[in-house]
Predict the 3D structure of the following.
Amino acid sequence: MSALQTEGTSTDKTDKKRSDKLGDKNDLRIKAIENGTVIDHITAGQALNVISILGGGENFTNTVSIVMNAGSSRGDKDVVKIEGRELTEKEVNAISLISPKATVNIIRDFEVIEKRKIQTPDYVCGIVRCINPNCITNSEPIESKFAVAADEKVKSLVLRCVFCESVMTEELIQFIE
Amino acid sequence: MRPMHHIISTREYTKEMFDEILELAELLEPIAKGEVKSKLLDGKVLALLFFEPSTRTRMSFETAMIRLGGQIINMGAVEASSIAKGESLSDTIRVVSQYADAVVLRHPREGAALMASEYTSAPIINGGDGAGHHPTQTLLDLYTIKRESRLDHLNIALAGDLKYGRTIHSLCYALSRYHSKINLVSPPELHLPDRIVDDLLKRDIEVNITTNMEDVIEDIDVLYMTRIQKERFPDPAEFNRVSNSMRITKELIQTAKPEMKIMHPLPRVNEISFDVDETSHAAYFKQAFYGVPVRMAILCKVLGMEDQVREGKL
Ligand SMILES: [Zn+2]
């Protein structure tokens, strides 16, 4: 059994070892889905946040599989698999903020037709709420807009509101529902 | 058609951009004083959208426009307007910018002017957006320094509330373009935010931080004073102690250079004692006047009349 088959649970030590050896290519092959998206190499612990970005909730009817703390050669990771759905650019951008090393695999007819590393965009629009309650984006019907930069000091992303210049570090990021 | 020119923030202005406006202001000063009559902006309409009161900013824009032969429209009190009925700022801007050739916007929320510039069909001039920017204040501060002292290699002290004062923050960035030496005089609880100090140091600016006015008073060319607000202090006794220690009196400035100038964005409460007004150091009322030629320069710039000003076709 590989990590991806133990859906929703964390793997035990033997599983982890084997999946390390087999690598992530194997993960995807074993978990063959017909059409959909596999988001791999999600920062461990962020899978549920990825789901909430994708609008998980009552209206979410696609089949979703979540693997948390799966082992791979690159260390602990989460994996999220959605059947019958591809991601919008907005969703990919949002995921990049909480999991910059994730990869998106698009599956059609059981084949990985596209595999790409998520790229952190220079700007994110309409995804994140500004932390400053007095920011114009929090009172007007307009899209929020943030410049994304890597902060060397805190080793994570920082968002700077284009409108009010408030700076938010990763842990302060609040996604717009 | 030339691209629309908004005045939203001076944060990223270069020295050349500042100088351009300051030079226009100097050319326009005789008109601001009423010595020369002008019809330069004859037929132009300026809309003043003030979502919070700011008598000085509004009146100096009105004066600037009238002296240049232009006209003004006002939205009146917020309570009586469509805003009170819940109209969004973006809708208001879309409508008003069709009535006027330029719009001055004063708004309590940060980012309002930038947002307005995305919805408008006329140039937007930011007349202050919450704790954000107030570019015409920064420009008039620079102009005052230029006219009353000197801009290059200035030795200036910024004093009072350096933490919350947006005027001070914007002025710091502007002064850094002129290689000023900046002395920061404030009580510890009202220090200039670290990120701004860092930015100044990155721009190779000499920064001196102190809590004591006497440390700097003999060496400086300009003392820029700001008001310390009572609300910043939970303890009234603490406020009294701090505001007294920051107070500028005739006695304090005795050791200053004769040409040292004192500035203040006004209104003052008691940070500068009244006996300072009669000394040659007091420049704060002049500073208020300089708001007029500077705002004239800005109006000429956004309305595309700067070449006429330079060519003396006033
Ligand atoms: Zn903001």
About this structure: Chain B has a mean pLDDT of 94. Chain B touches chain A at residues 88-90, 107-112, 114-115, 118, 129-132 (CB under 8 Å).
